[in-house]
Design a protein that fits this description.
- By secondary structure, this protein is α/β, with parallel strands linked by helices.
- The protein folds into two domains: about 1-180, NAD(P)-binding Rossmann-like Domain (Rossmann fold), CATH 3.40.50; about 185-305, N-(1-d-carboxylethyl)-l-norvaline Dehydrogenase, domain 2, CATH 1.10.1040.10.
- It has 14 helices and 13 strands.
- It has helices spanning about 10-20, 40, 80-85, 90-95, 105-115, 150-155, 155-165, 185-205, 210, 215-235, 240-250, 260-265, 280-285, 295-300; strands at about 1-5, 25-30, 45, 50-55, 60, 70-75, 95-100, 120, 125, 130-135, 135-140, 145-150, 175-180.
- Strands 5-2-1-6-7-8 form a six-stranded parallel beta sheet, sandwiched between helices. It has a four-stranded mixed beta sheet with strand order 4-3-11-10, with helices on one face. A three-stranded mixed beta sheet has the order 9-12-13.
- The longest helix has 22 residues, at about 185-205.
- The chain starts with a strand and ends in a 12-residue tail after the last helix.
- The mean pLDDT is about 95.
């Protein structure tokens, strides 16, 4: 299948490599092709499962060269979801399906603002890694997955073929394609832990082991999760009380040195996804008259760094 991956950061590069190894024709949509070495050097993943050099992928910064793709994976940061959709509109709207893999819960809405005729659906990417140069990723776990909605798979023949292709293809990274009845619910279930981890690892500047096994800090994590839960329920998402405890268990089960991707961005002086994480909870909390003191605090403390440029201060 012809697959366009918009964004060549850690998530896009990791899944692009997995898809290329599975036999798909992978093209990366990048902002500036002159700054990318993907065509020349390929991809390189390094981590606990081993080292995976991948050739045969390409990149482009011209959307006109990436039309009629079977699948588009949008892996850009949440704050770039609308602007990248505007840039790649012709690619998105001519594709079989476009899967939004942003952190947060409103990636589809942001994409549709700029590419209203695209077949945009929500998805979830689970992978832990970091990328400090084009095409190169250090991954931290030997498990990864993409989650999409069952209903969409049943309605979209291209997406169904994409999911089925994983069953009979080489898959050395053990990437799983998972299905869920309610992708919006699944996104909010992930959001309970994701937004909490982003806020706390950035505020504390330490990994999961130091945070989620400390009595004071785990109580802060629980407060964060409660606020997200209350806002999600007010938004009509059928979160259950068990989801809150599962989020706590997920955070406590993270590797001791693991931090959120937003923590990597903070220390590197890059823009933060803060507005779409804690900021989203604060705004929607005000709409529903739900107090969000933890996320108000996190947003206020991290806001001076939101546009990047703080490298070297830590």
């Amino acid at each position: 299948m012809k697959i366009l991956i918009i964004g060549a950061g850690a998530v896009g590069t990791y899944f692009g490599a997995a898809l290329a190894m599975a036999g798909h024709q992978v093209t990366f949509g990048v902002r500036d092709a002159s700054k990318s070495s993907i065509d020349r050097e390929g991809l390189l993943l390094t981590g606990p499962r081993g080292e995976f050099p991948v050739r045969g992928v390409s990149h482009t910064s011209d959307p006109r060269t990436a039309i009629d793709m079977d699948i588009v994976l949008s892996t850009v940061k949440l704050y770039d979801a609308a602007s990248s959709a505007r840039q790649w509109r012709v690619s998105l709207e001519s594709s079989g399906v476009a899967i939004c893999l942003q952190n947060g819960v409103d990636g589809v809405e942001r994409m549709l603002m700029s590419a209203p005729d695209s077949t945009a659906i929500g998805g979830i990417a689970f992978v832990s890694g970091s990328s400090n140069s084009s095409g190169k990723v250090k991954y931290l776990s030997d498990m990864s997955s993409l989650t999409v909605g069952t209903t969409t798979i049943e309605k979209n023949a291209t997406l169904k073929a994409f999911v089925e292709s994983f069953a009979n293809a080489p898959n050395p990274l053990n990437v799983r394609i998972e299905q869920t009845e309610d992708i919006r619910l699944a996104q909010w279930q992930k959001f309970l832990a994701l937004a909490t981890n982003a806020a706390l690892t950035c505020l504390v500047r330490l990994g999961a082991g130091a945070i989620y096994h400390d009595p004071t800090l785990i109580e802060l994590a629980r407060r964060s999760i409660r606020e997200i839960f209350d806002v999600g329920r007010a938004e009509g998402v059928p979160l259950s009380y068990a989801d809150k405890e599962f989020a706590v268990e997920m955070l406590q089960g993270l590797p001791a040195d693991m931090v959120a991707s937003m923590h990597h961005d903070l220390l590197s002086g890059r823009r933060l996804e803060l507005d779409g994480l804690s900021g989203h909870i604060c705004r929607r909390g005000r709409v529903h008259n739900i107090p969000t003191p933890f996320h108000d605090f996190a947003y206020g403390c991290l806001k001076p760094h939101m546009d990047g440029g703080s490298t070297g201060l830590f």
